[in-house]
Design brief:
Blueprint (H helix, E strand, L loop, with lengths): L2 H63 L12 H12 L7 E6 L11 H12 L6 E7 L2 E11 L6 H4 L7 H7 L12 E10 L1 H52 L15 H27 L1
Antiparallel strand pairs: 1-4, 2-3, 3-4
Helix pairs in contact: 1-2, 1-6, 6-7
Length: about 290
């Protein structure tokens, strides 16, 4: 196996090890960055919903209550306000969702699905848990969800949700008396659930990954070509010239021209040493011929 083959084989083996390690690391990094991006978006949605709830309680509810309307106004309910606002946003981002899922809701649309009910029960069983996040498969691809418990901490909430007989008549008229009652103070009755699609960040991460892989592969090929050119000029050509001279001298061609030396590196030093050896051998052969005469 020649020098070029050994050099290329070594370079390829080292590259493949480094290439595989780099791809593994970059893929994990991009996947983690995609997840962090989705988590950030989910957190923004969650904080937006909380801000809407607070705004409804502090500014909208007092205004609507002041109208003394005989009709129950769901706009005074923080959960309704937050859900409606996020629902409006979903006109442009249909895969994003926000829900205040409840096991026993007043409004049927807030009833928890099976997977949401599992989250709520987890909050009930783990009262110290403040937030849950996870990934679930949907028809449009993986979706990351962030959930926080809904706990009854305000006694005023029990006016509408303790027993039907003490609830406002307008509430009973709108939603009936079968659902949304029996809630207790400090009890977890539901969960805020924000779902954000992961498909777009994952697609971007995959695109970046393939571009990185292709770029790194292209850089290696360019490096391999340049390295072989340098190897040919600096090492192989001078060594071949010395080998050819040595072969001719060994066959008796003592008048072979000396090697042309223009470098001061190790190859140049070797060539100068070879020339000295050539001259010494040539002189020795001449002296031998003179003695024979």
């Amino acid at each position: 196996m020649g020098i070029r083959s050994k050099f290329n084989l070594t370079l390829i083996v080292v590259f493949l090890i480094a290439y595989g390690g780099s791809l593994w690391f970059v893929q994990r990094l991009l996947q983690e960055n995609a997840r962090e991006e989705v988590l950030h978006n989910a957190g923004v949605m969650m904080e937006a919903a909380l801000a809407i709830r607070k705004y409804t309680v502090t500014e909208i509810r007092p205004l609507l209550n002041a109208t003394k309307s005989e009709e129950f106004l769901p706009q005074t309910v923080p959960a309704y306000a937050a859900t409606q606002n996020i629902e409006t946003m979903r006109g442009n981002y249909p895969e994003y969702s926000y829900k205040e899922a409840t096991l026993n809701p007043t409004n049927p649309r807030d009833r928890a699905t099976d997977w949401e009910a599992d989250i709520i029960r987890h909050f009930i069983d783990h009262s110290d848990k403040k937030e849950i996040e996870g990934i679930r498969d949907t028809p449009t691809g993986p979706s990351l969800y962030v959930s926080r418990p809904i706990r009854i901490t305000n006694p005023a909430c029990l006016i509408c949700h303790s027993e039907p007989k003490v609830a406002p008549a307008s509430l009973i008229k709108k939603y009936g008396s079968n659902n949304g009652f029996g809630w207790k103070l400090n009890e977890v009755i539901g969960a805020q659930v924000v779902s954000v699609p992961m498909s777009l960040p994952l697609e971007r991460a995959t695109t970046i990954f393939f571009w990185f892989a292709a770029t790194l592969g292209g850089v290696f090929i360019a490096l391999l070509i340049v390295s072989n050119i340098i190897l040919q000029v600096i090492v192989i050509s001078p060594v071949k010239a010395m080998a050819n001279n040595a072969n001719e001298i060994s066959m008796g061609a003592m008048e072979t021209p000396e090697l042309s030396v223009s470098s001061s590196d190790e190859i140049g030093t070797l060539a100068r040493s070879f020339n000295r050896m050539h001259r010494s051998l040539n002189n020795a052969m001449k002296m031998l011929d003179q003695k024979k005469k």
